[in-house]
Amino acid sequence: MPDVLIHAGTLDCAEMRHEIPAAILDPFLYGEHDGAAFALLSVLDEGSVREVRPEVEIVDPLELGLMDLLEQGMDRDAALTEIALRACERAGLRSAVVPRRFPLGIADRLRAGGIELAVDGAQFDGRRRVKAGAELEGVRRAARAAGAGMAAAAALLASAEPGGDGTLQAGGEPLTAERVQAEVRAAFELAGAVGDEVLVAPGPQGATGHDLGSGPIAAGVPVVVDLWPQDRASRCWADMTRTFVAGEPADDVVRWHNLCRDALARVLDALAPGVTGRELWEVCCDVFEAAGEPTQRDPQGRTPLRDGFFHSLGHGVGLEVHEAPGLGRSGEALVAGDVVAIEPGLYRHGYGGVRIEDLFLVTEDGYEALTSFSLEMRP
Amino acid sequence: MPDVLIHAGTLDCAEMRHEIPAAILDPFLYGEHDGAAFALLSVLDEGSVREVRPEVEIVDPLELGLMDLLEQGMDRDAALTEIALRACERAGLRSAVVPRRFPLGIADRLRAGGIELAVDGAQFDGRRRVKAGAELEGVRRAARAAGAGMAAAAALLASAEPGGDGTLQAGGEPLTAERVQAEVRAAFELAGAVGDEVLVAPGPQGATGHDLGSGPIAAGVPVVVDLWPQDRASRCWADMTRTFVAGEPADDVVRWHNLCRDALARVLDALAPGVTGRELWEVCCDVFEAAGEPTQRDPQGRTPLRDGFFHSLGHGVGLEVHEAPGLGRSGEALVAGDVVAIEPGLYRHGYGGVRIEDLFLVTEDGYEALTSFSLEMRP
């Protein structure tokens, strides 16, 4: 096992959160030398670390001379960077692997001070691949929050009636994407989760992939509801999508929806340890291409696609919404303990789209579904 | 103006969010060459960028050969890194300044490809120092959310009565830190803000600085309520603290609270463009040391302090909760447009503490208070 360095807070860096599962806002240095871990951080955060990783040695920046550097007129960031080098020297660490996002400002100073650093993203992805214990429990709670949010969105859409102008009304008021988003957020909150971004994208907004959606919802158009709540206690995520139509769906939307369900079912037949993410993606492309839909696999897919299946089949989910393993062109072999979101989708630019997505734990003998909600298009 | 590169998503990187004020989860490359901006990102996110920065040239990774690299067996991260180099070459960018947290994984490849990178954190801090327009409006909304959260916390504490065992009861149930936190979060939500972490720390928990607080609240102990909501629309933050006592406070807590109010008033007398953060911190240290309280300035402050005034006086607030300018030992001169949180505090380890904090906009002729709530200790 090589020595390791990470420099980040625990609220916005999965690599750090995995090592120190506690809430620490400000970035700090975490290291492992010959298997012994140390953390360079203020006494303010010492208790939080001791609670979750009592064996980690806490090094206080003040003990390494921070105040003297500041008194000499060094700015705070430069001084903290200098202290990071001193902490490595004190630990006897001479070389380390670091995550892809290791900050260049720290890296340049450590290297100038003689510490060898090598980026090894796969090493850190690998540490987080197999979910177990508190992280798996956190994903399960987030998945339940996603289901609660989906139920809230479906209930509001189901209660709606078309008004005179063809847009939906609910409770005497126009039904907007924002109203659905607010209901979803309230459901997340009750489930101990938070979702800053909630995608409720009607009609053409649902065909762009990342438009969060806004404004009135028309009857008969597909509404993509893509939810990725984060469990507050563990900072673990889930990811789940349904597409609903309140009113009568168009024929092509019905066709897309059936194709997505078929694709998901075919992919699940193959989901088990050993299959590669690429193989799963190809299963989905097979289904869609056989129905005449463009995918990124066929030659026309080499230019940016705006119609058909223009994204990958999915991704790992854990302390990041998007993490290893990938389920696309470069997808590697799955292992038991992987948590993967599988999300077939079909779209036409300027018109609308359909996507369904569930979250699965890969098990020794197949998989276990973590998210749960009806796959019907009618809410 | 030097050429610039940033590599991040907009949801967790203030430098990027300042340039592209839209919601983009996945990290991407943003560059400026001879004053012209480009962004390397998927067509999925193109619309979001066009809406806020129509002049930014969008470069699609697929146009630069991403699929060929993946077909050749390169893993996705390596391929995207290679494409980042191609995007710089295409733009004619040969050297750039980057933020401190620029990811080492990208930096190493760009440098190997002949692009010179220099970390210049101050350049990016400077871009965000003066708040105006949408960001200032966002800070104002976050500050109102903080006030609403504080009112909710105070109302719940004010409604409480001591039970037989000395802990507070409200509505027939024990009053816990978690209940207060839930009320605060609900108030944030109604104000369009989100606060993953809400600090409600009674007694000894309030003396450690960063313990978020948990469990029953006893009558007569100081409860530190430190709120830092983030405005959902702009991703801008506010920061605000009050310390409440439900019941009769101890004499030393009353003395600390009066000292903190005195210190805040003395600091505000000096708050204006041109004063340095260090000078403001010294004003606060003067007040506390004259009352016999230890600070980081006096010689005993060179070892880690656990009692007295053990942190700095404050910090800038904007797209980060903690950003430039600092109000401590290395604090530089303030300018009109700075938004600063000022937070004098006094503590005794294992016993409790008092902190009060408000947010101020530095103006040409002094300051404007952005947060607003009673400074009384009784809720």
UniProtKB/TrEMBL annotation, chains A, B:
InterPro entries: Creatinase/aminopeptidase-like, Pept_M24, Peptidase_M24B, Peptidase_M24B_aminopep-P_CS. GO terms for molecular function: hydrolase activity; metal ion binding. Residues 138-364 form the Peptidase M24 domain. Keywords: Hydrolase, Metal-binding. Gene3D superfamilies: Creatinase/methionine aminopeptidase superfamily. Belongs to the peptidase M24B family. PANTHER family: AMINOPEPTIDASE, XAA-PRO AMINOPEPTIDASE P-RELATED. This is Peptidase M24 domain-containing protein. It comes from Capillimicrobium parvum.
